[in-house]
Each structure stands twice: as C-alpha cells, then as structure tokens.
Amino acid sequence: MGFFKEHYIKFVLYMAVIVLVNIVGLTLFFRADLTASKIFSLSDASQKAVATLSEPLSIKVFFSNNLPAPHNNTQRYLKDLLDEYAARAGRLFNYQFYNVSSAEGDLSANAVENRELAQSYGISPIQIRMMENDELKFTNAYMGLVLIHGDLIEKINAVTSADGLEYQLTTAIQKLNNKVSALLRLNDKIQATLYLSSSLNDIAPLIGLDNLPGLEQTVKKTIDGINAKSLDLLSFDRQDITDKQALNDIGKKYDLLALSWPDIQDQNIPAGQGAAGLVLTYQDQAASLPLITAVDLPIIGTTYQMADPDTLEQDIMGIIEKMIGINQDIGFLADHGTPALVPDRRTMMQGGSGGDMQVFNDLLSHRYNIRQIALKDQTIPDGLNCLIITKPTEPFSDYELFQIDQALMKGTNIAFFGDAFNEIAPRGSMGMPQYFPIDTGLEKLLAHYGITMTPAFVMDKTAYKHQPREGGEQIIYFAPMLKEDTINNTPAFMRNIKGIIAMQASPLSLVSDNLTSAGVTATRLLSTSKESWLMKDEINLNPMFISPPESSEEMDSYDLAYLLEGTFTSYFKDKPVPEKPMGEEDISESDTPADAGETTDPAATDAVESDTAAPEGDTPEVVAQNRILETSRPAKIFVLGCSQMLMDNMLDPEGRTTNATFILNTIDHLNGKDEIAAMRSKQQMLNPLADTTAFVRTMIKALNIAGLPVLVFVFGIGVWGTGKIRRKKIAKQFNA
C-alpha cells in the first residue's frame, strides 16, 4: 500500500512541475533560430527601430480568420513577428488584431464596425483562391494593417506572404519614427555659426552683391524657421572675422570661401579680406555651407552669387539630417542623356517605352526622397549622402566634372552604373542596332580615382538560357549568370546573395598607381566565370551569331563591379577652377556684352537681382581662395559596368529577387544603412546547387540507390553481432 502511495505522490508532484514549467514558459520563453540567415529572428535594424521609439506606436491589424493555407501561416507568422517587436520595444509599442470575420455566415456588430474602421484607413479586402470540397473557389479576405505614430499613418494593404514582411514593417516604422526620434535623442544643440566679415560690405556693390548686408538677417530668419519646426535644435552665432591669419585658419578648417582685394583708391576702399559661410557643428562633426560662390564665365569673367534664400532652409536641413543620421535624400543625375526615372507620357503616346526605370524608381522611393539633378542648370546640393549616375551619353563640361569632383570631396558617395556603348536602334523594323563607344569625360575622372571601363561587352558560357516557343534552348552569352563563387559575400551588404543575372556588362580594371598614391582601397564585388571572353570593335548581340572561342586560352574571368573607399584626391588639384559654360540664363541676364574680366552678378539665385553692374575698368582685383577642396572626406565610389541591371526587365516590383536585393543593398550601403541591407539579404531563399562533374553526380546517385541500403544492412549486422556477444557474456557470467 505504501508503495502505491509513494508513486501516486510522485506522479502528482511531476504533474505540478509540468504545469508550473508551462506557466513560466508563457512569460519567460526561449527560442533558438537554427536557420543560417536567422530568418525567424529580429534583425538588428528591427530591434533598433522599436527600441528607439520616442512616441507611442500603434499597429492595427485587420486579418480574416480561418483562412486556408498558406495564408493562415502568414497570419501566424505576423502574430509571432509582432510579439517579437513588442518584446523588444517596451511600453511605447502596441498592436491589436481586429475581428473582421463573419460567424456562421453573419457579421456581428463588432465585425461590421471593425470593417468600417479598416475602410477609413484605406484597408480593403483582397481576393484569394482557396480549395474547398475539391473545388477551386474565390473569396474576399482582409489581410492588411496600419501603423499609427503621432499624427502620421503608414499602411500595408495586403500581407499576402511572410517573405519580406519584417523588412516592410521595419522600414515603415523607421519612416515614421526616424526624424522625431533622432531630434529628441540629441544631447546638445547643433551649433550654427555664421562667419560673415563686415569688410565684405565695402566691396559687395563692386562685385554685384548689393544684398550682402542683409545676408545675416536672411540666415537668422531661416534658422528661426527651422527651430520652430524642429524642437529648437539649432543654436545660432555670428562671427565677424577680418584678420588675415584668422581667416586663413578658419578657411582651411571649414573649407570656407575667402576673398581678398587690394587698395581700390577710386572708391576709397582699403585692401582687405573677408569670408561668408555657415558652419554647422555637432559633437565631433562639422560641415560648411557656402553663402557666396565664385563662378568663372567665358568673356564675362568671374561672377559672384549669393545663396538662394528660397533653398537655404532645404540646404541647411540636408546637412543637419546627414549629420544626425536621418537624411533620406538621394541624388539622381537627370540630364546628359541618362535614362528617365518616371515614364515620359509624350514618348509613350508616340509608341516608345516612355521610361525603363519605373521599377527601380518605385523601389528606391520606398526608402528615399529622390532629388533629380539637372547638372547643366543646377548644382549638386550639399548634404547628399549619395549621387546616382546612370549611363550618361552626352559629354560633361569641365565645370560639371568639377561639381561632381567637389561633391565627392565633401563626402557625397557616388554610385556609377555605366555602359561602354550607346545603342542606337535602327530606323524602321529592319536592320541591326549600332553601338558607339561612350566618351563623356567622366571616364577620366573615374580613372583618376582608380578605375576604368574597357570598351567591350563580356560574354560568358555560364549565361542565361532562353527557351524559345519553337522548343530547344538558346544561351544568351551577353547575359552572364553570376554564381556564388564569383560574388564577394564578405561585405555585410553582400551576404546571402548567391546568384545574379547581368546584361550587356562591360569589364572594369583598376588603376593601381592611382589607388596606391591616394590610399584608397578597392573591393571587387562581382566577376564572371573563368569561361568568359570579350566582344570588341564589331558589336553584334544577335544570339544566333555568337559562339564561344574554340580555345580555352582565349577565355578568362572579368570584373564587373567594384567598391572604392577611402580619402580621394581631387582631379582638379593644382588646376585652375574651370569656367562655367554660358547658358541661355547667363546670356539673358547680361543685358550687354561684358568685356573680358568684367565682374557682374548674373545669378538668378541672388536674393534680389542687381540692376547695376560695376563700371568698366573699375572692377577690383578680388582673389577667391579655398575654392577647390583638394582632399576628400571619407567617401565611397561604387562602379558597375552594367546599367541594364536597373531596367524594368531586370528587377521585380516587390524587390525580392537577388538582382533587386543587390542593387538596393548597394544603395543602402552608400547611404550608411547597412543594417537595412542585412535585413533585406536574410530574406533571400536562393540556394543554387554547386556545379559538379558527371562522375561526381554518378557517385552521388550510386550512394543514394545502393549505398544507403548497404549501410542499413551493415548497421543491422553490427547490432545483431553486438547483441549476440552480450548474450554470451551474460550466459557465461551465470554459468547458463
């Protein structure tokens, strides 16, 4: 009796322990993600996004219940993902699932109210397919959510798959939270110091800057406007420096434009010097915004322009946002023959494509505000993290190259997607396209920085295979299939990218001497297989007329993409500042032809245009210093010899293919968003099988067919033999 009682007590105690362990597990749980890319764990970017919330963030989920597979798994994954966010976020993060489903065919009052709430946020049901009683049916289901952060709202109308869901949620949270959170986290104010020498007022009328005396008031008004919108984050100060040595020190430290002039006896103006610029400093960071610029024009000579008051606030905010890490602006070169980001309706009406980069534009617009820059009429704004240059075909003037060079010197990273040839389509339906080498002048700039592009197309035996309707298979040799062994996965933003398709790519080579002298490092990102060759001179991309070389000695591997990073030396070091080409705007603002060397103010960007020019022969010999930044801040240049990879036929609208992941990750890396790039990469599911020889494949098949049964048989014999030996030992021990 005592024996049964003891076992009964143990059984009760064991059951109690099991119940208590389960209760503890509801609040204190542990999960182990054994996947290689940690698919089921929150990325660092996601944890940071919710951990830095400064105001309550609410997520309202409208998801129909009892959906068929795979949508029920998506709902479960979404619930688990939101639980992960909540565990990392704390009290400022909350979410709620709203009942929008019918019960036994009827909608409850609560479900009707929730559906109306979903409609008010712009969440509508979508049609899905489902199998019921061996029949394919269609039904409407709610599968959306909305994020609310203060007065801002962001919605995801259709959560149809778990793939990329974390990326969608995290980027939406960042979009809502980044700016306000970053401003609230500032420990100190950003110091805005206006260096404006009063001595400049004496010569301002002589160089066409009549409104210079009102510059301080203009800057102060702009600063006050920014403070009113941005939690009073700026502290303003004005410094009047006229001492020559002090001006030299400040000019070199902050790259300020400094002016000097001799005695001007006719105007009773003594020799002097002065500077005008706005310097923003925060902790160990500093950035300058020139308030006076000097431009050399043919015939007219040197002209001086003041900062445009209408764009001053935007320029200052661009620098601030870059400084505190919330800059979302990205530059895109929109002239010099580059492809258009948005469809050209006029071209489409005439039967043309109207713009082949719509997908790229849509994908990039989800993360960045794209500022299109027409370099012939505009300057590159200060504060840009990255400038994208895609297949320019028209020549750059030296002044335009100077702008690109100086943007790099200021720390603006450059992404160059270039082609070696410009393709000219034949007139009519007959004939073959013609290919002309592209020479814009940008090539000499890149060569100076350490990289060149060979005027050729790379062909590769490991290429995309097309299956025509007639049957068979056709290898498109000018569309190399880049596999894991030719993709550099060492950089964080390149991880888990195991397959890319290129198209009409040109090979790159390094200028080692330039890299060594500048102290710049080069990282190869993409290359072709060792069975590649070049098509030069006579270009014909008709697959029917392309065949590999007979000898393997004529083939080699070619590099397609590089990342250069470090401190670059200006191409214009020890060279005069190039003159700005005369445009229609410059000509129209000059009422009469000016003599060579005459200084006027033709800029439309002055606060108020000056109707009077300096009298002929009275122009002072003003010397502008510190006009060229000779050494860059730490910067990066990405070069890909294949602009086709940005076209609509190479990218998917959802941005989930490896091609899209590579392009978007590269842009994120150039904008300091490596955490976002890592999160996007972990969603990649492409794991191609390694190439093997016919012998290896035969051996693997033989092992699967005959080897495994043999191993089972051997294992069984071993178990039988071990048991027999054990029985003999037992019999011997008991003399049985």
From TrEMBL:
Keywords in alphabetical order: Membrane, Transmembrane, Transmembrane helix
The ABC-type uncharacterised transport system domain, residue ranges: 328-594
Region (Disordered), start-end ranges: 574-622
Biased composition (Basic and acidic residues): 574-583
Keyword Transmembrane: yes
Statement: the UniProt record of this protein carries the keyword Metal-binding: no
Record field: transmembrane: 12-30, 702-723
Domain DUF7088: 37-147
Origin superkingdom: Bacteria
Protein's UniProt name: Putative ABC-type transport system, membrane protein
Organism: Desulfotignum phosphitoxidans DSM 13687
